UniProtKB/TrEMBL annotation:
GO terms for molecular function: signaling receptor binding. Keywords: Glycoprotein, Membrane, Signal. InterPro entries: CD2/SLAM_rcpt (IPR015631), Ig-like_dom_sf (IPR036179), Ig-like_fold (IPR013783). It is found in: Membrane. GO terms for cellular component: cell surface; membrane. Its main location: membrane. This is LFA3 protein. It comes from the Eukaryota. The lineage of its organism: Eukaryota, Metazoa, Chordata, Craniata, Vertebrata.
Amino acid sequence: AYIYCEDVFGIVGENFTFPVKVDQKVVETIWKKNKDKVAEWEELNKPQYFGPLCNRSVLMENGSLTIVDLEKDDAGTYELQYWDSVKDHYLDFVLFVLDPLPEPKISCKTSNRQLVLNCTADFQGPLNYIWRLSNNPQSHQKQELSIPLEDINTTMKATCIIKFSKMERSSEISLIQCLP
């Protein structure tokens, strides 16, 4: 049997669903964490849950498992074994549980007639950065943003948004405080 493995990321306190894509009808499902059974479902019966996920997980008919209120201890290797009435299939997931997103920090400096804004966040996962300017509907997807000094007025604000998975946090700065 071919074993598929994927690294997945969840955040402490959030609900997390393993990204299971099964295109045939699932007859029987067993989920294991580090080789210990945590959930089991056989057609016509109700799902059963075991161990630390007993009161914090939901098993769906398509085989996907949702863990409610994720904890650091939920990190580990999860194996989904399901039977589609023809053969067994195996999917492996390595779940990493990360801290909640911090608030991004914005710094600014002027250089070559440009205002240079930089957005940083201390986070252990790969972040997406988005800049939005109060006078411009378009967004800029990068960690650093340069604006010509002549384009800046006294009421302009810049917002840095950091995204990871389905979460986002933002910070805002008034550009007037960046000017020399």
